[in-house]
User: Fold Translation initiation factor IF-1 from Paractinoplanes ferrugineus.
Amino acid sequence: MPRLVRAVNSSGMALHASPEPQCQVAEDMPKKDGAIEIEGRVIEPLPNAMFRVELANGHKVLAHISGKMRQHYIRILPEDRVVVELSPYDLTRGRIVYRYK
Assistant:
């Protein structure tokens, strides 16, 4: 059961009560609906943080780095193994969501 956090003004009057915000770890966050995750290998880096990735099934897609990877300065190099998240609407473009060590 979430604990309620009460905000008060300078005179002590309650402004509102809201549930305490809860932080989620990246692994616990739900994935995008309908997104397809597939493993691949980076073939070549392209301008503007884009990469050409060859998927495990042989297809080549254009992929960019996800926001969390960009935020944590995770570097992507050619020949890196990565996980790409594809939208079911455009299977030629994707988002790199994980780089294998």
The CA atoms of residues 30 and 75 lie 24 Å apart.
